[in-house]
Amino acid sequence: QNAASPIMEELIAFHDHALMIIFLISSLVLYIISLMLTTKLTHTSTMNAQEIEIIWTILPAIILIMIALPSLRILYMTDEFNKPYLTLKAIGHQWYWSYEYSDYEDLAFDSYIMPTYFLEPGEFRLLEVDNRTTLPMEADIRMLISSQDVLHSWAVPSLGVKADAIPGRLNQAMVASMRPGLF
Asked: Degrees (nearest 5) of the Cα angle 86, 176, 161?
């Protein structure tokens, strides 16, 4: 699915940025290797040159900084919590998830996977549930994620969120959808 949140859009842009750097480095290395294999000429003056050693020491450090700074910015963006509009608690169980809207009294439900024989044409096996979670659009939503029995992972890739559900531990994630849809 396409990105539905600003965090996921930033993650896709960072992926493209890092992939371009990797492509340029790989092209340069391939060019140098092919040049070394095809030519018989060698410069003896470059074998002991201090300038070349400085360049191939500083250049990788600059490249790492070009990758690290956007990565750290996105890391802090994903962990930034404004005043949430809504709090939703997801509790993982062995074969289903329980959801509780903490801001409202007695608003909780269980979400089970639909059996294969109940699926309609066009629905996806192991992705359809009987009770879907409904969240508002263009609002910051705080997700509290925990587990009842075993380790789980609560993820919505198009929103750029993935958090582990660990028994006895409460993890927190921020979700914001900028467009309506089924994620």
From this structure: 105
Give this prediction's pTM.
0.79
pLDDT tens-digit map of 61-70 = 999 999 999 9
Residue ranges of domains in the chain: 6-79, 86-175
**Among 163, 162, 166, 168, which residue's Cα sits nearest to residue 150?**
166
Only one residue has tokens 């958090």, namely 163
Rounded Cα–Cα distance for residues 10 and 78 (Å) = 10
What is the band of 36 on the pLDDT scale with cuts at 50, 70, 90? confident
Residues 109-155 pLDDT 10s: 999 999 999 999 988 888 899 999 999 999 999 999 999 999 999 99
Q: List the CATH code of the domain at 86-175.
A: 2.60.40.420
Phi, psi of 89 (to 5 degrees): -105, 125
Which architecture does CATH list for 6-79? Answer: Orthogonal Bundle (1.10)
* Dist CA 127 CA 123 (whole Å): 8
Q: Is 132 left (phi over 0), alpha (psi -120 to 50) or beta?
A: beta
- Gap between the Cα atoms of 16 and 18, Å rounded: 6
Closest CA to 124 of 132, 133, 116, 135: 116
